[in-house]
Amino acid sequence: MMRNRSALHSIKLAPPLARRIARYWTSHGPAGRGLFALLGPGLITGASDDDPSGIATYSQVGAQFGYGMAWVMVFSYPLMAAIQEISARIGRVTGRGIAGNIRTYYPGWLLQAIVCLLVLANIINLGADLGAMGDAVYLMIGGSVHLYVLLLAGTCAAVEIFSRYERYVAILKWGTLSLFAYVATVLVVKVPWEQVAYNTFLPSFSWQKDYIVAIMAVLGTTISPYLFFWQASEEAEDERTTAGGEPLTAAPSQARSEIHRMRLDTYLGMGFSNLISLFILVTTAATLNAHGVTDIQTSSQAAEALRPIAGRFVFAVFAAGIVGTGMLAVPVLAGSAAYALGEALDWPIGLARLPLDAKAFYGTIAAATLIGIFINFIRVDPIKALFWSAVLNGVVAAPLMIVIMIMAMQPKVMGEFTLPRPLWLLGWLSTAVMTIAVAIMFLTW
Length: 445
Description:
- By secondary structure, the protein is mainly alpha-helical.
- It is built from 20 helices and no strands.
- It is globular and about 60 Å long.
C-alpha cells in the first residue's frame, strides 16, 4: 500500500496540477507516502455515499427536473466536506470514534438514542442496497434475485470480516474505481454541456413543493449520519494501526502533517463523490428526461429505463455500477453500525482485530448483513424501505450534527485542536441547512 513520493509523478495529471500537488505533499505530507497512500477514509467515505440508494435519488432528480438541479451538487459539496472533515478530526485527535466520545462526555440517553436510530437506519439502507444490487444483476443476466442478494451479501461480509486490515483498506480504495462506470455513461450519451454548465453555476430556483422536496432528498443523501461515524472511526483505526501513530492530543507534533493529509483526503473524496453524483444526474437528464421518462423510484428502474433509450452499453455499465458501488457501500453501512454500537457498549472494536478478538464487533457486521438479507425475503417494498431509511437518517442527522459541532469546539474533548473559525462557520452552516432540510421533510411528509 505504501509508496514513495516518486509514485506521485506517475499519476496521469495535467502537469501544472501534478506539480502543485507534488509541491504541497513534499512540504506537508509524511515522508515516504505517495498520493494513493494518502487517500483513505475520506476517499472511501465519499465513494460509499454514492450507493444504490443515492443513485436512485440522483436518477429521480435528473429524470424529473433535467439539468435544473445540477447546481445542488456544487452547493452541497462544501457543506458535506466540512462536516466530514470535522468528523475525521474528532477521530484522529481523540483516537475514538463519534460514539466513543459521546459515551465519554455526554449523557447515556443521548448516546442510546443516536446509536439505536443509526443502526436501524443503516440496516434498512443496507437491505435496500442489497435488493438494488440483486435487481441490477438480474437485469443484466437473468436468474434469481434472491440468490444474487445472498451471494453479494455473503461476499461483502466475508471480505470485511476475514481480510487483513491493510488488504481490506486497499480493496475498498480500489473499489472506488467502480464509480467510474458513471463517467463512462456520461461520455457515451449526448449531453448539451453548455446547458449543464449554465444550470450548474447559474442556478434557478422554484418554490414548487416537488422541487424543494427533491433538493432536500439530495442533501439528505449526500450528508448522512453513517458517513460521520465511519470516517471518524476509520481515522481512529488508522491511528491505532500506523507505526508511531497516537491521538493528536497525546502527540501534537504529528498534527501538522496529519491534519493536512486528512483535509486533502476528505476534500478529494467528497469532490469525487459529488462529481459522480452530478454525472448520474446528467446521464438520466440527457436520456430519461429528454424522452419524457420522469418517474424513477429505484436505481434498477433507472437502469432498466435506460436500455431502450440509451442502448445496451449504457444500460449495462449503469447496472454494473450499481453492483460495484453497492459492494463498497454495504460494508461501510454494516461497519459504521458496528463501530457505533461497539463504542457505545465499550466492546473491543476495529477491523484490524482478528475476528475472535472482537466477536461482538464482527457479530454486529454479520447480524446487520443477515437482517439486510432478510428484508429482501419478506417482500418489503424497496421504495418504502428507502423512505423509512431517509426518515430515520433525518431524525438522527440534525441533532447529531449539533452534538458533533459542540464536541469539536470543547477543549476537554479536542485539547488544543478545536476547530479553526472558517471550518466552524462552515460546519454550523451545514448543520443549519440539514436542520431546515429535516424540518421540510416532515412538513411535506
